[in-house]
Automatic annotation (TrEMBL):
This is G-protein coupled receptors family 1 profile domain-containing protein. Keywords: Biological rhythms, Cell membrane, Disulfide bond, G-protein coupled receptor, Membrane, Receptor, Transducer, Transmembrane, Transmembrane helix. Pfam families: 7tm_1 (PF00001). Residues 1-250 form the G-protein coupled receptors family 1 profile domain. InterPro entries: GPCR_Rhodpsn, GPCR_Rhodpsn_7TM, Mel_1A/1B_rcpt, Melatonin_rcpt. PROSITE patterns: G_PROTEIN_RECEP_F1_1, G_PROTEIN_RECEP_F1_2, PROKAR_LIPOPROTEIN. High affinity receptor for melatonin. The activity of this receptor is mediated by pertussis toxin sensitive G proteins that inhibits adenylate cyclase activity. It comes from Anguilla anguilla.
Length: 298
């Protein structure tokens, strides 16, 4: 019975962690499938020639990806905070049903945050970056709301969660010699560091563009003309490059991701070798599979 409860708890933990990461990956991939190809098309043709509808759809999906990413990063931080700092109530808060509801809530809030763009007319083509994107000068009040909702509030929540986790990590490291079973496992620490790096890179990549937007929103006619074009372009592409960084961070800091990346690369570039290794792994697994009695004893 104890083993069954432990296995169920581990399954809930793995599901809770993975579903948020998958949701974040989906948010990053949204721009890769539609807006980015249109940006390349605009660059090659030195302008936008795909019509206003395509421009609105591209800008909407780009906003969906951006806000969805930060909301999912916030959800991951809260999830890690609850698991590490409030582990006794984690299973109740992040059951299978509750986790799916939370991810659904994240995307509902994301859509609600992006839809007002259609009412204020802020989705426009910007020739400086060859993209249909959010125009910071369209509405001062909406620009302030976007910066606060998309950047300041999530950054504050994530910072609080990770600071509390770091405090616990320091406390655990001090007590690790005196306690035979520390509360924080090495795998938990590695996962936390991975998501913390993702958050730091997001703040670095998106900070300049949001600060420019906030400055422009204060007085668009006076501030906007004085923002150097090179500064806006660099901050814009640096912000959207963040969508490409998460997969790199996962590969550098997580052994499981590196292993799967290698499997995918092998399956694409050397299918015969991949098939041989898969068959060999399956045979070895059958040979080394422990007996049911051993599983029950464990």
């Amino acid at each position: 019975m104890v083993l069954k409860i432990k296995l169920v708890g581990n399954a809930v933990l793995v599901f809770g962690c993975n579903v948020f990461v998958v949701s974040l990956a989906f948010a990053d991939l949204v721009v890769a499938f539609y807006p980015y190809p249109l940006v390349l098309y605009a660059i090659f043709h030195d302008g936008w020639s795909l019509g206003d509808t395509q421009c609105k759809v591209s800008g909407f999906l780009m906003g969906l990806s951006v806000i969805g990413s930060i909301f999912n990063i916030t959800g991951i931080a809260v999830n890690r905070y609850c698991y590490i700092c409030h582990s006794f109530v984690y299973d109740k808060l992040y059951s299978f049903r509750n986790t799916l509801l939370l991810v659904g809530l994240i995307w509902v809030l994301t859509i609600l945050a992006v839809v007002p763009n259609f009412f204020v007319g802020s989705l426009r083509y910007d020739p400086r970056v060859y993209s249909c994107t959010f125009a910071q000068t369209a509405s001062s009040s909406y620009t302030v709301v976007v910066v606060v909702v998309h950047f300041l509030v999530p950054i504050t929540v994530v910072t609080y969660c990770y600071l509390r986790i770091w405090v616990l990590v320091i406390q655990v490291r001090r007590k690790v010699k005196s306690e035979p079973q520390p509360r924080l496992k090495p795998s938990d620490l590695r996962n936390f560091i991975t998501m913390f790096v993702v958050f730091v890179l997001f703040a670095i990549c998106w900070g300049p563009l949001n600060l420019i937007g906030l400055a422009v929103a204060i007085d668009p006619p006076a501030v906007a003309p004085h923002v150097p074009e090179w500064l806006f372009v660099v901050s814009y592409f640096m912000a959207y490059f963040n969508s490409c960084l998460n997969s790199i961070i996962y590969g550098l800091l997580n052994r499981n991701f590196r292993k799967e990346y290698k499997r995918i690369a092998t399956s694409v570039w050397a299918p015969r070798l991949f098939h041989t290794e898969t068959s060999r792994g399956g045979t070895d697994g059958l040979k080394s599979k422990p007996s049911p009695g051993l599983n029950n004893n464990e």
